[in-house]
Amino acid sequence: xxxxxxxxxxLLTYFESKGYNVDRNNGIAVIKSFSKPEDEIYSLxxxxxxxxxxxxxxxxxxxxxxxxxxxRITTNGLKDFTKEQIRKTIFTTEKGRIIDVVSVLNFxxxxxxxxxxNNKVKVMSWINRYVISDDVKQSDANHxxxxxxxxxxxxxxxxxxxxxxxxxxxxxxSFKVMNVEGILFFLAKMKDExxxxxxxxxxxxxxxxxxxxxxxENTGPFDFNLIGDEAYNSFRIEQGIPTAxxxxxxxxxxxxxxxxxxxxxxxxxxxGQEVLARLETYDKVQKRLTGLTFDSxxxxxxxxxxxxSENLEAGIVTSFVxxxxxxxxxxxxxxxxxxxxxxQELFVKSGASKIEARISELPFKK
Length: 366
Prior knowledge:
CATH superfamily of the largest domain: Probable tRNA modification gtpase trme, domain 1
Mean pLDDT: 93
Radius of gyration: 21 Å
Oligomer: single chain
CATH class of the largest domain: Alpha Beta
Order of helices and strands: HEEHEEHEEEHEEHEEEHEHHEEEEEE
Number of helices: 8
Shape: globular
CATH topology of the largest domain: Gyrase A, domain 2
Number of strands: 19
Largest sheet: 6 strands, mixed
Low-confidence stretches: 1-5
């Protein structure tokens, strides 16, 4: 899932040189864990975790019409979008279904779109479909950049420790160029789902390993850990964070995934606007993303139907994990609103047996 084979091999070689095990997940090389998953989860909840966004799609748009073009075809407003700002928006189909959720970084001369690698081809095809006479040219930029994410309650203090006091001068949803010991990168400041500040270090390929080395040599007094796929997947399900291809896909619309805040209802038309406006105005949203707890574990290799006691369809289970923090099987599901009651009896079918599932509010609580 790295941007290309060269970057993948360089980073895997680097991590292996540090003594970490590389695993294969459906043929993709990943680091499932850097330490005990419990320690990595602790850093995400109480300290600071560093994660390489190996599943990020990075697309570059050039041309004077780029921001206006995105304003017209995606859900959020980009009319007042200025240099060094970051704005999140959603590509949707004519039926209001999600193609991808992207963060747009404004470099003035060009825009960088950061989405999910699973949806990159769809997004680039969608852009090509609607660029007619606009001055917009897109290119795949995964071979040029890596993104390192620093998140957790201590992330803000940690980045000040690593980069200096200039970090405090970066407004939320903005980025600045940084120079740390001759290592150049762009540092983006945002807020995560819990309201904590999180950071992306956008580096070119020549500086990624230098920055990683510098950070690992300067972890200071912080509860710091590198974050592998196993711990992050548990964390993001515990927090109710939708991701591709599980939730961020064309099976669902933004209202169903609790992403209505990324729709600018005042900006006028965009692709899928009429459908999404009608759903909200007339309270026609029939399903919502919610949490589930299960009586036992099961395999989730494809769409898992959620049914009620009379075997009627209640929703779709989209993600499942044996929670590292909660020590029990939990998952995410898009469920019909009529079933969103914690006392409702629901089940998933696993082979010949049924496993009981219970609705849980998001984020999950201990």
